[in-house]
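Structure, all two chains, one model.
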Amino acid sequence: MSYVAIKGGKAAIDGAASATEYLRSKGSLQEPLSLAMIEEQLRLLTSRVVSEGGLYHPRLAALALKQFQGDTLEAAFALRAYRSTKPRLLESPVQDTANMRCIRRISSAFKEVPGGQYLGATYDYALRLLQLDLAHEDPAAFKAVAQSFLRDTPDAELPDNFPKVIDSLRAEGLLPPVAPSRAAAFDITRDPLVFPVPRSAALATMARAETGGLLAMAYSNMRGYGDVHPTVAELRVGYLPVMLPHPVTGELMEAGEVLITECEVVAMYEGSNGDELPTFTLGYGACFGHNEVKAISMAILDRALQKGMRDGPGNPSEDPEFVLLHVDGVDSMGFASHYKMPHYVTFQSDMDRLRTTQQKMQQKSQEETA
Amino acid sequence: MNAYYELPMEDAGYSFGFLDEYAKKEVRRCILKAISVPGYQTPYASREMPMGRGFGTGGLQLTLSLIGADDTLKVIDQGSDDSVNAVNLRQFVQLTCPGVQVTEKTQEATLIQSRHRIPEKPLTEQQILVLQVPYPDALVVVEPSEARRKVMHGEADYSRLLVKLYEDVVRFAEITLSHRYPTRINGHYVIDPSPIPRWDVPRLHQSPALVLLGAGREKKIYAVPPYTVAEPLVFDDIAFRVEDFRDSNGNRIACRCCGSTESFLDELIDDAGKVTHQCSDSSYCEEHQETISARKQA
């Protein structure tokens, strides 16, 4: 018994790998991309990959983007596979996003909110005109941009954190109070989704969903296959301190911080139970990185799914099974790609069925004409 | 991330079998459950593997959870050890499971991972067959909702599947299911036996080898334990039929390489447009060729 030499297949795989590497490096006059360049200058791409990969490691995300030549699905996939090799060390306690060090926070519900509105870095009001001077950017001028921004920005009285907009809505009784008992969060990396699933399973699945897939589902609800009609109570982007119990004392301590995007949407009120007053309803979205479209889509879908879980789905975006089993990028891209693999045997079997059916139908029509 | 952060550059320390030990333990527990309830789709928290969902990640998690350094592994895809995906999976196991032997010979293997075929050569009690599964649920043909399918399975309610087969007979005078033929295990659960051709379905019945089926993307594990009843779903008056390899004169077509008239054949079209046939099981074909040339020499 020994290792049997493999014939054509191995050579083909090796050849494909070197052809791919050739394409990565063929811009012969260029420098190889540094990971810091990807992480900083393509920060939104990196954000997307940490979010869909479900692993907060921007440097590894940058590496994956470099390795897979900018393919977000593949890069997120590589992070997930890396994650499979790591044991789960502990379950983190609930993190309070009121402690977030915001780089941007807005509310479209109120002109003024406690703590104020901060537009921060956004393309929302940018004119989408191609900026041709970026084609030949002078390195010195490039560096000067950051320096002058920091110099010109006053050491503002920017608070460390901001109160949450929905807290004021709660205080006024327009939103229901936070449910007191909280079951332990469902861990989608350790338990399979068996429907019906709790809301925490839905939120976790959407938090690492593929952005485009999530957006398409949410958009169907926005357009009319659903009726969430959301108002963004608050959208915030910033660094959330991650509090973990000290291994010895058990006391919560800051282990680091993660860049996250969080969105809360408020939707119209529904019929109340018994003598309680009706209140607005809430949809919640949050994900790693700076991904505003994803967080908004998630918040809308959270609202739609809560409605579907309560009253039964009235349309696809309210159906937990339909939404949650179809938004994962790793699953969906893998299965779409698998059709490229050989299917000789099943196709042989298909041909057998068609030929036999054709023969039988022919015989039948001959018998009928005879 | 902090600008001074440097990625640790030592080789990523992957443990034996790539998955962490907790993950392997969980998969093994699910295997035990799947064997205890033949044909039941046991949900498990399928991990992401470094190859695409749909490329055999379910089968691979079974293999990696079961394999030990004293095992001999055979990996086939479409019956062939040399198919690109089979090569890729085998290389990955060799990379992450030092000490494991690999083989192309069916009889030498203790563990066989396969996509779309069951080897022609009968398996033994000493072997485990792992099949890769894209669609774990035979009922998906008639019911898209997993929650509703789960209830139907619990009640052994396969009436809609039988209606589908009946409608086929009415419309086409034939059952049109070509592969993934619904098969009832131990008198209760109907399984999707993975996209094996109908040719391979009878091999599941009373198989001496344990057959494990793993769907990574759909996160299910199920089993046909050794010596278990496995019956394709049919009607009393409509027999189950395997693929027909007879030519227009009604003669059984032989493999162009080994001359066998007893194996599942691949149909090939050469540059001139001529159709020829060859065994799908490459290990079977090679062995048959060797036997014949030995006989000729004798």
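Chain B has a mean pLDDT of 93.
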